[in-house]
Design brief:
Shape: extended
Structural class: mainly alpha
InterPro entries: Heparan_SO4-6-sulfoTrfase (IPR010635), P-loop_NTPase (IPR027417)
Subcellular location: Membrane
Order of helices and strands: HEHEEHHHHHHHHEHHHHHHHH
Strand content: under 5%
Mean pLDDT: 81
Bound molecules: 2-acetamido-2-deoxy-beta-D-glucopyranose
Radius of gyration: 31 Å
Protein name: Protein-tyrosine sulfotransferase
Oligomer: single chain
Number of helices: 18
Distance between the termini: 130 Å
Low-confidence stretches: 93-97, 320-365
Number of domains: 1
GO molecular function: heparan sulfate 6-sulfotransferase activity; protein-tyrosine sulfotransferase activity
Membrane topology: Single-pass membrane protein
Length: about 500
C-alpha cells in the first residue's frame, strides 16, 4: 500500500517534470524561431535597400564610419580636415552624444556611430568610407587605450575627486570629451573605477610584491587582458565590433529593431551569418575601404580615390570664399580618440573657438588650392607630428601604471591560448577582415592599372606628337617587309613546282 502510494507520487512528479521540460523546450524553440525570423527579416530588408550605381563616385555627403582603434583619427585630422573646411563638417560629429542634423548642407560626417546613422542621412546622396583592422590587434588596442585614458585620472587622490573633476570639465567645455563618445563612454569609466580599486587595495595591503612580469596579466595593477575580454561589457561592445558597427547593430544603434536583432544574434550564433552577409554587402557598396595594416597603400589609395574627387568636387562647386587652410585643426577640432586630460590644458578657449568657426560660416573649401600630390605631402607631415604627440601622451599616461607597460616585447609574450580566445570571440570580424582585404587588393590593382593607363596615354600622345611621321613610316616599312616575304615565298613555291615538272 505504502509502496504503491510512493510509486504514484513518483510517477506524478516524473510526469510533471517531463511536461515542464517539454514546455520549456518548446518555449526556447519558439524563441529561436522568433529570433530567426526577426534576423532574417532585418537582413533581407537591409540587403534590399542598397543604392548600387556608381559606388566609386563621391556623392554630396561623405560619411566616414570610424571603427574605434583603426587609425581613423589620422585620416580625420591629416586627410579629411585638409580637404574639407570646418564649415563643411556636419555639426560636432564627434563632440556630441548624437548627430544633430541641423545643418542640412554639410558634406563631411565623421563618427563612431554605426551604420544605422544612414537612416538620418539622404541615402542617395551619401558615400560611405571606413577602415578595418586586424581584429586581434584591434582588441589589444582597445584594451590598451581604455587603460591609457583611464590611467590619466590616477593623478587624483581618489575616484570621487576624479569623477568630480570630469563633471566640472564637462560643464566648462560644454560636453566635449572622449568620455561622451561611444564606446569610450563605457570603457573608460569602467577601467577608471577598476584602476582606482586596485590602487586602493595596494595601499591598504602595504608594500605589494608584483608576482608577474607580464604586463597583460598584472592583476595587482590593472585588469588582466583575459579578464577584460571575458567581461560582459567587452562582449557587448568590443568583440565583433567592426561587423556590428557596419551592420548597424551596435548597442549604440539609432534603430529600435537593431537591438532585438543584436540580442538574437548574440544568443544564437547560427544567426550571425546573416549579419556577416549584410556587413559584407555594405563594404562592397562603400566608396573606400582602407586597412590599418596596409597603411601606406591605404593612404595612397585614399588620396587618389577619395581625395582627388573631393578636390574636383570643390572646384566644380565653385565656392565664392577664399580657401581656408586650417592649420590649427589638430588642436581645435574634436576630441576624438583623444583624452579628457588635454581639455584641462585647453580650458575654456575650446568652446569659444568652436562657436567662432560655426558662426562665421565660411563656405570656402580647404581643397580649392589642393592637389593629390600636395595632399599626400601634407598628410605625411601631419601624421608624423600626430604620432609623436600620441606616443608622448601614451608614455606619460602608462607611467602611472608602471611596471605594467604595453610594449612590443610584452605583447610577444602573450600566451597563444589567449590569442586563440580572442580569435574565437571575434570570428565574424576575422571573416569580415579577410573580405575587406580582398576588396582592398582589387581596388588597389584597379588604381594601379588606371594610373598606368593614364601614364601610357600621356606617353602615347607625346610619342604621336613628336614622332607622328616616323611611326607612320614604321607601319609602312613593316607592311613592305611582310609583302616582300610573301613574294619570296610565292616565288620559291613556284620554282619548286617548275623544278618538279622538269623532273
Ligand atoms: C578624495 O580626495 C579629496 C581631495 O583630496 C578629499 O577631499 C576627499 O575627502 C577624498 N575622499 C575620500 C572618500 O577619501
Ligand atoms: C551598451 O553597453 C554598455 C556596456 O555593456 C551598457 O552599459 C549599456 O547599457 C548598453 N546600452 C544598451 C542600449 O544596451
Ligand atoms: C562660379 O563663380 C562665378 C563668380 O562668383 C560665377 O559667375 C559663376 O556663375 C559660378 N559658376 C558656377 C557653376 O556656379
Ligand atoms: C587658458 O588657456 C590660456 C591659453 O591657452 C591661458 O593663457 C590661460 O591661463 C588658461 N586659463 C586657465 C584658467 O587655465
Ligand atoms: C593657393 O594658390 C595660390 C595661387 O594659385 C597661391 O598663391 C597660394 O599661395 C596658394 N595657397 C596655399 C595655401 O597653398
Ligand atoms: C614603456 O615602454 C616604452 C617603450 O619601450 C618606453 O619608452 C617607456 O619609457 C616605458 N615606460 C616605463 C614607465 O617603463
Ligand atoms: C618574464 O620572465 C620570464 C622568465 O621568468 C622571461 O622569460 C621573460 O622574458 C620575462 N618577460 C619580460 C617581459 O620581461
Amino acid at each position: 500500500m505504502d509502496r504503491a502510494k510512493k510509486f504514484a507520487v513518483l510517477l506524478v512528479l516524473l510526469l510533471y517534470a517531463v511536461c515542464a521540460s517539454a514546455t520549456s523546450a518548446s518555449d526556447s524553440k519558439d524563441d529561436y524561431e522568433h529570433c530567426r525570423s526577426t534576423v532574417k527579416k532585418w537582413a533581407s530588408s537591409s540587403l534590399d535597400l542598397e543604392v548600387k550605381e556608381d559606388k566609386h563616385t563621391l556623392r554630396d555627403l561623405l560619411y566616414f564610419l570610424h571603427i574605434p582603434r583603426t587609425g581613423g583619427r589620422t585620416y580625420f585630422h591629416c586627410f579629411l580636415k585638409k580637404l574639407y573646411a570646418s564649415s563643411l563638417e556636419c555639426p560636432r560629429s564627434y563632440d556630441k552624444l548624437r548627430f544633430d542634423p541641423s545643418k542640412p548642407n554639410c558634406r563631411l560626417l565623421t563618427t563612431h556611430d554605426d551604420y544605422s546613422m544612414m537612416s538620418k542621412l539622404p541615402k542617395e546622396k551619401t558615400s560611405v568610407m571606413t577602415i578595418l583592422r586586424n581584429p586581434i590587434d584591434r582588441v589589444f588596442s582597445t584594451y590598451e587605450f581604455s587603460i591609457e585614458v583611464a590611467a590619466r585620472f590616477l593623478v587624483h587622490p581618489n575616484l570621487t575627486s576624479a569623477t568630480q573633476m570630469v563633471g566640472r570639465l564637462r560643464l566648462k567645455n560644454r560636453g566635449v570629451s572622449t568620455l561622451d563618445i561611444w564606446p569610450w563612454k563605457y570603457l573608460v569609466p569602467w577601467m577608471r573605477e577598476d584602476l582606482f580599486a586596485r590602487r586602493d587595495a595596494r595601499r591598504h595591503s602595504g608594500p605589494t610584491y608584483i608576482r608577474s612580469n607580464d604586463s597583460y596579466n598584472m592583476e595587482e595593477i590593472v585588469m588582466p587582458l583575459q579578464e577584460y575580454i571575458n567581461d560582459p561589457i567587452a562582449r557587448d561592445i568590443i568583440h565583433n565590433g567592426a561587423t556590428f558597427q557596419i551592420a548597424g547593430l551596435t548597442n549604440n544603434s539609432y534603430l529600435a529593431e537593431s537591438h532585438e536583432v543584436r540580442h538574437c544574434v548574440l544568443k544564437y550564433q547560427t544567426l550571425s551569418e546573416h549579419v556577416l552577409d549584410v556587413a559584407k554587402k555594405r563594404l562592397d557598396d562603400m566608396l573606400y575601404v582602407g586597412l590599418t595594416e596596409d597603411h601606406k597603400e591605404s593612404a595612397t589609395m585614399f588620396a587618389n580615390v577619395v581625395g582627388a574627387q573631393v578636390i574636383s568636387q570643390s572646384i566644380a562647386s565653385n565656392y565664392s570664399a577664399d580657401p581656408v587652410v586650417d592649420d590649427k585643426s589638430e588642436e581645435s577640432s574634436s576630441s576624438l580618440d583623444s583624452d579628457p586630460e588635454t581639455s584641462h590644458h585647453r580650458n575654456s578657449s575650446t568652446g569659444q573657438k568652436a562657436s567662432k568657426i560655426s558662426s562665421t560660416g565660411n563656405m570656402g573649401a580647404t581643397s580649392k588650392n589642393m592637389t593629390v600630390g600636395k595632399l599626400t605631402q601634407v598628410y605625411e607631415t601631419c601624421i608624423s607630428s600626430l604620432r609623436k604627440t600620441q606616443a608622448q601622451r601614451r608614455t606619460s599616461s602608462l607611467k602611472r601604471i608602471s611596471p605594467a607597460n604595453f610594449t612590443k616585447e610584452a605583447r610577444r609574450q602573450v600566451p597563444e591560448v589567449l590569442l586563440q580566445e580572442i580569435k574565437s570571440l571575434n570570428g565574424l570580424d576575422i571573416k569580415l577582415y579577410k573580405y575587406a582585404q580582398n576588396i582592398f587588393s582589387k581596388q588597389h590593382k584597379q588604381m594601379i592599372l588606371k594610373s598606368a593607363a593614364a601614364k601610357m596615354q600621356v606617353q602615347g600622345s607625346q610619342f604621336n606628337n613628336a614622332y607622328g611621321a616616323p611611326s607612320q613610316d614604321i607601319i609602312w616599312i613593316a607592311m613592305s617587309i611582310a609583302l616582300l616575304f610573301l613574294f619570296v615565298a610565292l616565288f620559291v613555291k613556284a620554282r619548286r613546282r617548275t623544278s618538279k615538272i622538269k623532273l
